[in-house]
Specification:
The protein folds into 3 domains: 15-125, Fumarate Reductase Iron-sulfur Protein, Chain B, domain 2 (Orthogonal Bundle), CATH 1.10.1060; 131-230 and 373-441, FAD/NAD(P)-binding domain (3-Layer(bba) Sandwich), CATH 3.50.50; 245-366, FAD/NAD(P)-binding domain. It contains 18 helices and 13 strands. The protein has helices at 27-35, 45-48, 55-63, 67-77, 81-87, 94-97, 99-102, 110-121, 144-155, 172-175, 184-197, 213-219, 248-257, 276-287, 308-316, 374-379, 410-413, 418-441, and strands at residues 136-140, 159-164, 200-203, 222-225, 245-247, 268-272, 292-296, 320-322, 325-332, 338-347, 350-360, 363-366, 405-407. A 5-stranded parallel sheet has the order 3-2-1-4-13, sandwiched between helices. The protein has a 5-stranded parallel sheet with strand order 5-12-6-7-8. A 3-stranded antiparallel sheet has the order 9-10-11, with no helix packed on it. Helix 9 links the parallel strand 1 (136-140) and strand 2. The chain is globular and about 70 Å long.
Length: 442
């Protein structure tokens, strides 16, 4: 599943400096690791995967040399199996549920085995495609949820068309995944795989500006909304508006796509937040050689929402934390450059009047969440959102209040893993297919 995508990334961007967190297995390593699998009855790793891949079966096929069969087993449950093999937090999903983990032993390296199968044998020729139905489905966004939905619809014989406002498809898989987990080229290769299944992708088209939802409903028989999340939330303190204070998601996007982007002159970086985006950002800064990288978090370290294994790795990379602290001001020096952050003590996540020592910084990344695209979602006819800006759907089918509109991914779940987006996209494809079939029967 490599590299003939029509979409291109510059060769000399910062992302290319990173090594791989989990490098690929050799054939010998893969066969030896696969042989460790116990092929459990009622294997706990299967329900731990949101797409319910038959993990023991795909591993057994690696052990017996049936690499194509292994890849087919993965793809039949998860069309984004290549990216999920790289980016899934296996430590808390499949591998975290492995029976070996319960025995205090090293779990089967499921993620790396999945990558071995996908990189070595994944092909559209492994999957059976239904005859064309002549029905067209529009998809808003070309991130993981829409890609998975489009691929599943194409296999069912429909004609999916994805509308993506950016020049590069793939969503956060292309522009937001930590580069030591997956490079942009890998994400674009998977986009190409979905295209080969029969999906059409139109980039540079913003729904709501270039075309309306009504236009899409007129052009297609159903619509899937996989718009993801919006811009980084801002730091609302004096001095935060200006150079050197950047949303973490936007900063990672530039790291992965912009050849002009550099960290020249950055010695002291602070990342505000305690989620997985914040933990990705501090690791990236440290791995790129920034001398001092601090995580500023309003609660105790053990209360962070980010995964424990990610924080453990960040500490190994030299990152330290300023816990129970809230930024009250970004202090700037000559030329508007950042000099330091003023902090106060926090208790229970709330700021007090007790000052803390200023924190030297010349770069501040804000990782305190992303905006929900509430306005766009609420503009869709018949679609409702909850009080947190998430689109309301039937969890079994992805259907919204409008019988022709379905949704999935971050716009529905508020921001989960790629594998969750894949599961929701494919679930919605089944819901769309059932609706189209029932409409034909009437």
């Amino acid at each position: 599943m490599a590299g003939r995508s029509p979409y291109r990334l510059p060769a000399d961007r910062l992302e290319t400096r990173f090594g791989e967190k989990a490098p690929p297995l050799s054939k010998g390593e893969a066969v030896a690791e696969a042989a460790r699998c116990l092929y459990c009855y009622d294997a706990p790793c299967i329900p731990a995967c949101p797409t319910h891949i038959d993990i023991p079966t795909f591993i057994r096929k690696i052990a017996t040399g049936n690499l194509k069969g292994s890849a087919r087993t993965i793809l039949e449950s998860n069309l984004l199996g290549a990216s999920c093999a790289r980016v899934c937090p296996v430590e808390v999903l499949c591998e975290g549920s492995c029976v070996y983990t319960g025995w205090g032993r090293k779990p089967i390296e499921i993620g790396r085995l999945q990558r071995y199968a996908m990189d070595g044998a994944a092909s559209v020729n492994l999957l059976r495609k239904a005859p064309s139905t002549g029905r067209s489905v529009g998809l808003v966004g070309a991130g993981p949820a829409s890609l998975a939905c489009a691929g599943a619809l194409a296999l069912l014989g429909h004609s999916p068309v994805l509308y993506e406002k950016e020049d590069l498809p793939g969503g956060l898989n292309t522009t937001g995944v930590a580069p030591y987990k997956m490079k942009g080229e890998n994400a674009l290769a998977e986009v190409d795989f979905i295209r080969d299944l029969g999906a059409e992708i139109r980039t540079g088209v913003e729904v709501g500006a270039d075309v309306t939802a009504e236009d899409l409903l007129a052009a297609h028989e159903a619509l899937f909304v996989g718009i993801g999340l919006g811009a980084d939330s801002k730091l609302d303190v004096p001095g935060a508006d200006g150079p050197g204070v950047v949303g973490a998601v936007e900063w990672i996007r530039r790291l992965k796509t912009d050849p002009a982007f550099s960290l020249d002159g950055i010695q002291n970086a602070a990342v505000i937040g305690g989620g997985n985006t914040a933990l990705d950002a501090v690791q990236e800064l440290a791995k790129l050689g920034v001398r001092s990288v601090r995580l500023v978090y309003r609660r105790r370290a053990e209360e962070m929402k980010g995964y424990r294994h990610e924080w453990s790795q960040a500490k190994q990379d030299g990152v330290s934390i300023v816990a129970e602290a809230v930024v009250t001001e970004v202090v700037r020096g000559q030329g508007a450059s950042i000099r330091e952050l003023k902090l106060v003590k926090a208790r229970g996540g709330r700021p007090t009047e007790e000052p803390l020592d200023p924190l030297p910084a010349d770069l501040v990344l804000v990782a305190v969440g992303q905006a929900k695209l509430r306005r766009f979602a609420a503009s869709l006819p018949g679609v409702e959102v909850d009080d947190r800006g998430r689109i309301l759907v039937d969890p079994e089918t992805g259907a919204t209040g409008n019988p022709r509109i379905f949704a999935g991914g971050d716009a529905v779940n508020g921001g989960k893993e790629v594998v969750n987006a894949a599961a929701e996209g494919q679930r919605a494809a089944a819901g769309i297919h059932a609706r189209l079939e029932s409409a034909t029967a009437r």
